[in-house]
Design a protein that fits this description.
Strand content: 5-15%
Number of strands: 2
Number of domains: 1
Number of helices: 9
Shape: globular
Order of helices and strands: HHEEHHHHHHH
Length: about 220
């Protein structure tokens, strides 16, 4: 089953509502992708991940043990780009006619990996809640529902990846330990430059990924 243009547009609108007007309620789902991005890409390049924590109002933490220069750099970059990377990966699966259930099941595998590393009750609750929602749709719903939900999910990751960047801008005014601030210390490149990089790449993923979804449905 393939999505048509109407579904591509309508699921985008639903995702926009979730990512913008309802951001205060959905932000923690993006935080999971953000902190999971830190952990996954840091681990892939040699970091030892000690724990992940998800806090209220979209805050989070990933603490690494042993790490090298490259793993720390990749981990720091992958946080704000994590939701966009995962969303764009989902887009690629959908536009190449992969089973939409596979998008949801891969998301569940990722959530399970983050859950194992999570060390606070609120974080565990949020991950289990998101995971339960994905599992019900993937395993208990019709193909049409799975397809529509997968579209909403990848749209939401792309939009949420862009939506979180303004939060970084506000945090940078008072907190020198933001990802951008740590990248400035790590690379001697200004935090404003990293803010622009995050904004440009996440917005590019949204525009290009969204165009692929719409074109595929046409």
């Amino acid at each position: 089953m393939a999505a048509d243009l109407g579904m591509a547009w309508s699921t985008g609108v639903v995702a926009f509502v979730a990512a913008v007007p309802l951001w205060r309620y959905t932000t923690n789902a993006i935080t999971i992708a953000h902190e999971g991005g830190h952990a996954l890409f840091g681990w892939l390049f040699g970091s030892v991940v000690k724990h992940v924590k998800i806090f209220r109002a979209g805050a989070g933490e990933m603490q690494a043990g042993a790490e090298n220069w490259l793993s720390k750099f990749v981990s720091l970059v992958a946080g704000y780009l994590g939701p966009s990377i995962f969303g764009f990966g989902g887009v690629q699966l959908l536009v190449h006619d992969a089973d939409p259930r596979s998008v949801l099941l891969l998301s569940l595998v990722f959530l399970a990996g983050v859950l194992v590393m999570t060390r606070n009750l609120f974080g565990i609750f949020v991950i289990l809640f998101v995971g339960a929602m994905l599992w019900v749709v993937a395993m208990r719903s019709t193909e049409a529902v799975q397809l529509a939900f997968a579209y909403v999910w990848v749209w939401f990751l792309l939009m949420g990846g862009t939506r979180q960047v303004p939060e970084l801008f506000h945090a940078m005014r008072t907190d020198p330990t933001t990802d951008a601030g740590q990248l400035q210390s790590h690379t001697l490149i200004g935090d404003v430059v990293w803010l622009f990089v995050f904004w440009l790449l996440s917005l590019g993923a949204l525009v290009y990924g969204g165009a692929l979804l719409l074109r595929h449905g046409a």
